Amino acid sequence: MNILIIRRDNIGDLLCTTPLMVGIKEQLKVNRLDVVTNAYVAPVLKGNAFIDTLYVYHKLKHGHTSFFKVIYERLKLIFNLRQHHYDYILAFDQRALNLTRYLRKNKVLTPIQDWTHQTEVERAWELGQRLGLRGIPGSLAAPLYYSSSDKKNAKTIGIHISARRVRQQYPIAKWVKLIRALYDLDANLTFHIFWSPGDNQNPMHPGDDEKANTLKNALKNYPVQFISTPTLESLMEGLQGCGSMIMSDGGAMHMAAALNRPIVALFGDSNPKRWRPWGVPYTIMQSKTEDVKDIEPSKIVDAWLNLINSIPTHKKII
Q: Please, what is the angle between helix 232-239 and helix 251-258, to 10°?
């Protein structure tokens, strides 16, 4: 049996699909498991032995390409995919469904759209259950990064300050207050601060250099290492040095979960039941206003302390 997965959206969505990929290869009699995704998110699948062929294409909105190159890539992708007959294609969005029209296949499966009370991992897994998967999904998979030496320092807290959605963007003044409070709690703590580099006005990839510089000035007397992450590989590499993470919901949060890091996750207006960290100890914090700016640093300090003291047995939503 040959199966193709087309998952062309975001980092977190793709990582939430990795338990499905592993389950298909481990439980079903599959000759080929191929995956189509975009070039921006593809690095999180590097080293995944459960994928036979990873097909990667560029999105025009991500830059570093041209309209004519995009058209050429699409045609080449269709040609390469047509070399194989797929018994099942799992198409996760409408454009993925459109692509299947040009491919040799028996059946196309799409996920349930109205999905609010269970995680995205379980939404993807449900597709596999239609093919015969049993049990519950395993952990998120980032095998290439697991193969690196584990540099985790339990006393290092990772802080990720970038978030695309406005209601997920925690104010810099509150990040400063939070880090100072954590350091007052334990002077042996160190902090790694991660952000997407660049100008916040960049229409393709808005960055947080200005926020990072503000933090540097405010925290110059504290044990803080600032780590710009221009690529997903650099972010995954940096996350490995952290013993725990405090961050807003987003792709980086799921990357931390794939690396098995405990997480205090700040949720704005996204659904924590669907997008919570999978397979790791976590605490979710969400204000009644569904805006992270309304979460007080003192509450985050308490949440982090309770989470660390309760590992590995307790997971709590507050």
A: 50
